[in-house]
Automatic annotation (TrEMBL):
SUPFAM superfamilies: Clavaminate synthase-like. Residues 3-127 form the Non-haem dioxygenase N-terminal domain. It comes from the Bacteria. InterPro entries: DIOX_N, IPNS-like_sf. This is Isopenicillin N synthase-like dioxygenase. Coiled coil: none annotated.
Length: 365
């Protein structure tokens, strides 16, 4: 099971043979595995370490100090996600053992924020944040985003689409960068089937993962304590393996990982596949893991439906009905426990009260 590696400098080259080499790697990687390794990605490894140090300091603050940045009113889309908040849809309700911090690396545009206020809120920062916390997360997000745009151009070429097809849909989208810290298990929790991140597929277009690091029980960066923990992905089912196969998703040294999300699967009618993935915990207590992810989204006003090239009867059946990406975002955020279910009641026409008032003679119009 060889997950291909794509060289971003191939995709940006003027040489058609190099572009095709990169596109071919993406075609196989996204089509078979839903994931590609990326080299020459432009992410600064030293800055990433510095950021993880800053994030570790923030996580170590007492819960009361972090609480003002855990914002249920904006569905936790900026700032701190407390532990035991988010759940995976397939996880039987088991909350993930993690705390996270979300920031948008680019300013939101005002008209989109008016339409979807909780999806495009302003960033939230503690005034006394550890040095390099804000700058580190924002610059990481921007470099991952640039790498992602290169990959999306390659993905479009790989499918015979105009080069900017996916990148155009991303313009002014609700892209968000997240720092994650997976929390230590106690000795009675290890080896009981508890995972750090329950199996799921990402609901956005493309996710970029710059690679993480373990913290030992003294909270010092260290190599993995065993070979049990880390990112595993499930491959596409085959007649021999109807459940697919669980494959380790550890990138080769110096590479980052890019994963297909549900939006890219829908737009390509399943030609590219959203990767089911799970973050397993180590078999020893007291260890943590830090990681980061940048989630690229199509703009909230994009209709999620297979592009015409992929609109076969099967694809239409599988991905119907067409749905606005912003609505899809809200539905998913409810499903994973970040938005209240009342958010769904507020979709579309909601002026029944006004009609009742009018019928009762309470309004003039
Ligand atoms: Fe994920």
């Amino acid at each position: 099971m060889n997950i291909p590696t794509v060289d971003l400098t191939d995709l940006s080259s003027k040489d058609p043979a190099r572009v095709e080499r990169g596109a071919a790697a993406i075609r196989e990687a996204f089509g078979v595995f839903g994931l590609v390794y990326v080299k020459n990605h432009g992410v600064d490894a030293q800055a990433l370490e510095r950021f993880y140090d800053a994030f570790r300091t923030f996580v170590s603050w007492p819960a009361e100090a972090k609480r003002p940045y855990g914002r249920a009113d904006i569905w936790y889309q900026r700032g701190w996600t407390p532990p035991n908040t988010e759940v995976a849809v397939a996880g039987n309700g088991q909350p993930d053992f993690k705390e996270c911090y979300f920031a948008a690396p680019y300013p939101s545009d005002e008209s989109s924020a008016l339409e979807f206020p909780q999806i495009y809120p302003e960033n939230v920062w503690p005034p006394d944040a550890p040095p390099f916390f804000q700058e580190g997360l924002l610059s990481l997000g921007r470099s991952l985003h640039e790498a992602g745009l290169g990959l999306l151009r390659g993905a479009a070429v790989a499918l015979g689409l105009p080069e900017t097809s996916f990148a155009d849909l991303c313009q002014r989208g609700p892209h968000v960068t997240r720092a994650l810290q997976y929390l230590p298990l106690t000795s009675s929790q290890v080896n009981t089937g508890i995972v750090w991140g329950e199996e799921h597929t990402d609901f956005n277009l493309l996710t970029l993962l710059p690679g993480g690091r373990f913290l030992d029980p003294q909270e010092q960066p260290a190599r993995s304590p065993d070979d049990k923990s880390g990112l595993y992905l499930r491959t596409r089912p085959t007649p021999e393996d109807p459940k697919g196969r669980m494959v380790r998703g550890t990138a080769p040294a110096g590479c980052i990982v890019a994963q297909v999300g549900q939006q890219l699967e829908i737009l390509t009618g399943g030609t590219f596949l959203a990767t089911p993935h799970v973050i397993t915990a180590p078999g020893v207590p007291g260890w943590q893991r830090q990681s980061a992810a940048h989630f690229m989204h199509v703009h909230t006003n994009t209709v999620l439906f297979p592009l015409s090239k992929f609109r076969t009867p099967d694809a239409v059946r599988n991905y119907a009905p067409p749905v606005l990406a912003g609505t899809y975002d809200i539905k998913t955020l409810v499903d994973i426990g970040l938005a209240p279910s009342s958010a769904l009641d507020q979709l579309g026409y909601r002026h029944y009260d006004r009609l009742n008032q009018m019928r009762a003679g309470g309004t003039k119009s």
